[in-house]
Amino acid sequence: MKYFTELATILKSFSIDEILYFEENYDAQFVYLKKLYENLKDKEKFLKLIVLNAINAFKLKYKGEEFWKIFSEYFSIKKSEKYYLEFLKEHNNILLEVKVKRYERVRDFVNSLKYEDFLDLKKFTLSLAKVLNQRPSDKTIVFTAKIVGYGLRIVGNKFIFPMEIDIPIDVRISKISSDKNFWRKLSEETKIPQLHIDSLIWVTLNLDVESIKENELKEKVKRLKSILSEIILNNPMKL
């Protein structure tokens, strides 16, 4: 449990306001979503579009950051869900048949939503999982919840993720641990929602820490990156 304790200690050093600031300024996904909204200027359309993209954000031919950059630029011009299948075929065509079916299954549900329906993220997550016949803890479901939470902040809400929603365990996060219980315990210990832990770790693992302008934040992220590197080096599956 050595690494658990060290990781928890470092995470506890971040205030929730620091985490929100870090996400908004250093998570490329957040930055590209914000640019998309600035071009769409329509809360409901924006949230619906990002849900459609998030449910199919797996088996990508780009890194996650690049994928959301392409999505943002594409729909900043197209500005309509009617071009989504075209986007899939051009930019997200690994397992294309599966992704088209997922889109078709969820399209009517998403189109029926009003802006207010996104505000209760726990309820939204359960409803989305039911429509897609998945567990609420499945990676694509909780990742979509994270993207919706980002979207809600972008359109003007100071939104903190619910503690109950699990972390999306993708390739980057699984380098630390692929055990959902590990992340749940870490969240309980630090009092930080798993989706915020996700952004801290997911971004830090791929970030040039020297790009951080704020000295205090930079030092904290450096310490976080150091322990993450040590965990990966010493076999994360032992966690």
The chain-level mean pLDDT equals: 95
The poorly predicted ranges are none
Alpha plus pi helix count: 13
Largest sheet: none
Distance between the termini: 7 Å
Fraction of helical residues: 55-70%
How is the quaternary structure best described? single chain
- The helix/strand series, from N terminus to C terminus, equals HHHHHHHHHHHHH
How many beta-strand elements?
Answer: 0
Into which percentage range does the β-strand content fall?
A: under 5%
Shape: globular
Provide structural commentary.
The chain has 13 helices and no strands. It has helices spanning 2-12, 16-26, 28-40, 43-54, 64-78, 84-91, 96-112, 121-131, 139-154, 171-174, 180-190, 194-205, 215-233. Helix 12 packs across helix 13. The N and C termini lie close together (7 Å). Helices cover 67% and strands 0% of the residues. By secondary structure, it is mostly helical. It is globular and about 50 Å long.
What features would you highlight for this structure?
single chain; 239 residues; mainly alpha; 13 helices; globular
